[in-house]
Structures are given as C-alpha cells and as structure tokens.
Amino acid sequence: MENKTPGGTESAFRKAEDVVSGMLAKGYILGKDAVNKAKTLDEKHQLTSTASAKVSSFDKKIGFTEKISAGTTIVGDKVWEVDQKFQVSEKTKSAFAAAEQKVAKAAGEVGQKAKEKVGMAEEEQKRKMVDDFAQVHLSESPKASAESELPTSKPATVQGLIL
Fold it and tell me: Which domain holds residue 41?
C-alpha cells in the first residue's frame, strides 16, 4: 500500500484502525463467551424461569400491572387535556421551527466565512509559491547573471567641487 499523504498519515491511520478493530473483535469474543456462560448457568439453575414465575404470581395477587395501566391511561388523558388547553405542542413546534431557521442561517453564514477564509488561504499559498519560485529561478537564471555583469547605461555621477 502506498502513502498518499505526507508523513505516512494514511499508514498511521491504517495501523490505528487495525489495532482498534482487533481490540473490538477480542472484546466481542470475550463478551460472547460471558453471555454463553451466563446462559448455561441460567439453564442449569433455572433462575430466569423461577424469577419470572414469582413476579407473575406476585403481580396477580396485587394487580400491579392493571393499576399501572389504569394510571398511565389517566395521566395520558390529563396530559392531552392540558396540551389542548394551552397548545403546548403547537407552541413547541413553532419554537423549534424558528430555532431551526436561526441555526440554519447561522450555519450558512459560518460556512460562507469558512469558504472565504479557505479561499484567502489558498490565494496566499499560491502567491507565496509563485514568489518563492520567482526568487529561486530568477536569481539563478543566466540572463540575470549576464545582466549584472553588463555596464549600466546610466551616466556616472560627477564628483568634485562645484562653484
């Protein structure tokens, strides 16, 4: 496999991925083994069936399931009445819709600013690359060295005493 990113980042990522997947696989095997041992213990001692039978018997004696069911129905009806009276559901939906619009707008603005910054950074990087290229190649070109050896056409400055 070849590295597509500098510094072997992809290779390091692959190694980390291999390590994590190996650890997960070993954990799964250990967990599966623990579940199988628990099932075997339960089947041997019939813990689940005994507990279920005792809970069912107790529930029949006191009528717990029926009481909970009736209580749930009463509470549900009261909640519905309050919701109808105060329009809680509608107000909540409206508030969520408004919040969602604000979040979407803010996310769009942040995304646009991020795009602009990326664009500026890319332009700066291109500019620096061109400047570096020009500096290296123009200072080493034969034309640049030949030009520095040629006499300039500018007249020499006159020095002396002026009266």
Answer: 10-45
